[in-house]
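Hypothesis: this fold can be encoded by more than one sequence.
Test: take the structure tokens below, design a sequence, compare later.
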């Protein structure tokens, strides 16, 4: 089997591995490091263990063996759900802010008392803070992301409590 990743399904062979097309750099025309065809490096191992010996005699993993390194694990399901929920909260807060802006403009044009400058400023600042916190949470992992998500929920809760229910 040539260099590349293998699917361990049947793939046309009973229980055998099948190389997926497009996994080899040579399929894409890339002529960088390791794409030359020097016999043993690309197709066969230098010894029976599937490793090429270094200067110190220790076996190093064979580069072209088709082994796949595990990709770094992404965030868990709970984190993805919290990020999606906080993104929805931010979207709702932005829509409320747009509504406050529209009502303020229409109220000013028609001489009807609107929500007021204080409410408008609170909504604008809260939307900006929540958007920045959501953006930060989407790009970070761990405690920093969790703290940013908490900021989003607290800001939205404070706006709802003080401006809509208070």
């Amino acid at each position: 089997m040539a260099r590349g990743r293998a699917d361990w399904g049947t793939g046309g062979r009973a229980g055998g591995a099948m190389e997926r097309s497009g996994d080899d750099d040579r399929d894409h025309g890339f002529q960088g490091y390791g794409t030359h065809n020097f016999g043993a490096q690309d197709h066969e191992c230098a010894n029976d263990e599937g490793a090429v010996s270094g200067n110190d005699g220790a076996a190093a993993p064979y580069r072209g063996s088709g082994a796949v390194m595990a990709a770094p694990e992404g965030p868990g399901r709970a984190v993805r759900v919290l990020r999606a929920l906080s993104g929805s909260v931010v979207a709702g807060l932005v829509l409320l802010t747009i509504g406050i802006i529209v009502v303020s403009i229409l109220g000013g044009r028609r001489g009807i008392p609107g929500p007021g400058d204080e409410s408008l400023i609170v909504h604008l600042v809260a939307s900006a803070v929540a958007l920045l916190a959501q953006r930060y949470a989407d790009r970070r992992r761990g405690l920093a992301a969790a703290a940013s998500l908490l900021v989003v929920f607290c800001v939205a809760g404070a706006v709802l409590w003080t401006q809509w229910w208070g």
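Helices lie at 77-110, 117-139, 143-165. The two ends are 70 Å apart (CA to CA).
Hypothesis status: open.
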